[in-house]
Amino acid sequence: MAEDTVTIRYFARLREELDTDGESVPCAGARTAGDLLAQLASRGGPWQQLVEGQPVMIAVNQAMARPETPVQPGDEVAFFPPVTGG
Amino acid sequence: MAEDTVTIRYFARLREELDTDGESVPCAGARTAGDLLAQLASRGGPWQQLVEGQPVMIAVNQAMARPETPVQPGDEVAFFPPVTGG
Amino acid sequence: MSEVRVGEADFDVAQEYARLRDSGGGTGAIATFTGLVRDSGDLSGVTGLYLEHYPGMTEQVIEDLIRQARERWQLRAVRVIHRVGTLKLTDQIVFVGVASAHREDAFAACQFLMDILKTSVPFWKKELTESGEHWVEQKDTDVRLGDRWGE
Amino acid sequence: MSEVRVGEADFDVAQEYARLRDSGGGTGAIATFTGLVRDSGDLSGVTGLYLEHYPGMTEQVIEDLIRQARERWQLRAVRVIHRVGTLKLTDQIVFVGVASAHREDAFAACQFLMDILKTSVPFWKKELTESGEHWVEQKDTDVRLGDRWGE
């Protein structure tokens, strides 16, 4: 993983609908998880659901996070639907 | 059991302190469980605890009851300390 | 489907759980509670308990509690076991197990049955220690927990 | 004493109960919850579930929940197991077991852990039926039950 990227992971319905379980994206300077979501959504098509419709939960470095949570290069950021375990 | 008596049963601490697990007592006409308690307490000594000090629970015919619950000849009346199972 | 047992015999939680689980494809939730003899209660250094009950009445009152629970919650199976006689430290005393479609109903009914067992079913516990024995007093907490279910 | 297991393997409630019981003479109360695959959820005619999770994060979040539970209640042993992968009707999905001196603490911690598992731990369920499959939606009830514990 290059130092100027973040690793993105997708789970469950999002993983299926985006047809990928993850990717590396460039991340220059200070960003938030919400900035990343908006950047990915701008790809259009199924990616728009990241900011529209059903809520998306966020984890940064495997801890629950919010759109305003800062993201640094090297971080692992995950986007997924509301959880339904138990 | 004669038709003009009620069967009394004592449990747990009361059984031990009264030194009996039960007896038959005369019960002419309409009575309440509370009347019976007062009659037994009038024996004095350990029997006074039936109306003084720690509360006494009552069952009539194996259902939880109150001092005002009517008692008929032939009934089974039980007096016991607050329950502590579970 | 429900079963009530009161007696001296010990019980096997694995077997009770297996019967709760065997309550059909609609069962999604099983809540159980087991009470054990512990080393301190009203007294410390408890080595055992003596449990007395009112035979006949006990079973009827528990059956009635299960009827009430079935009116309040959707239950698929209920099992209640309560031991009597002399028990030693770490012995099992009581088991309440409930199977339901949903966890809220299973938890609520299991707690309801335990709470009411403590306040309205004719069982009495005596604590046994090296230095003597003592009839357990009814706890204010237990009365409060019992009262929360209304009547 | 606590243990967390997340994986495909089934679990044996008897063994889990035995370990909870083996938590010393101060244990007076054991509360357990088991979740099973049931025949209807969002869909009817459910024949199985597929369970996905976020490996690594899942275990950490559960360990943290157990720490929170131990701060709120006096607990002597906690065991949490959650299965992933493909499960069939009536299979066991999840087990939460808590041993404590007192039943209030055991029940509360067991419910807390189940409620928060449903709303804050990265597991996702897909229902499988003869005619198709469907990612389960998060329930308002589950959100409400999770929220009651504050944060």
TrEMBL record, chains A, B:
Keyword Disulfide bond attached:
no
Q: Which InterPro entries match?
A: Beta-grasp_dom_sf, MOCS2A, Mopterin_synth/thiamin_S_b, ThiS/MoaD-like
Originating species: Marinobacter zhanjiangensis
Q: What is this protein called?
A: Molybdopterin synthase sulfur carrier subunit
Q: Which family does it belong to?
A: Belongs to the MoaD family.
Recite the UniProt keywords alphabetically. Nucleotide-binding
Pfam families, sorted = ThiS
Superkingdom of the organism of origin: Bacteria
Q: Which NCBIfam families match?
A: moaD
CDD domains the UniProt entry points to: Ubl_MoaD (cd00754)
UniProtKB/TrEMBL annotation, chains C, D:
Per its record, the protein catalyses: 2 [molybdopterin-synthase sulfur-carrier protein]-C-terminal-Gly-aminoethanethioate + cyclic pyranopterin phosphate + H2O = molybdopterin + 2 [molybdopterin-synthase sulfur-carrier protein]-C-terminal Gly-Gly + 2 H(+)
EC numbers on record:
2.8.1.12
The reply to whether Methyltransferase figures as a keyword in the UniProt entry is no
Pathway it belongs to?
Cofactor biosynthesis; molybdopterin biosynthesis
Instruction: Return the broad EC class.
Output: transferase
This protein's UniProt keywords = Molybdenum cofactor biosynthesis
Pfam families recorded: MoaE
Q: Which SUPFAM superfamilies match?
A: Molybdopterin synthase subunit MoaE (SSF54690)
Q: Which CDD domains match?
A: MoaE (cd00756)
Q: The organism sits in which domain of life? A: Bacteria
Does the keyword section mention Ubl conjugation?
A: no
Quaternary structure, per UniProt, is: Heterotetramer of 2 MoaD subunits and 2 MoaE subunits. Also stable as homodimer. The enzyme changes between these two forms during catalysis.
Indicate the family of this protein.
Answer: Belongs to the MoaE family.
Q: Which PANTHER family match?
A: MOLYBDOPTERIN SYNTHASE RELATED
Protein name, UniProt field: Molybdopterin synthase catalytic subunit
User: Which organism is the protein's source?
Assistant: Marinobacter zhanjiangensis
What is this protein's gene name? moaE
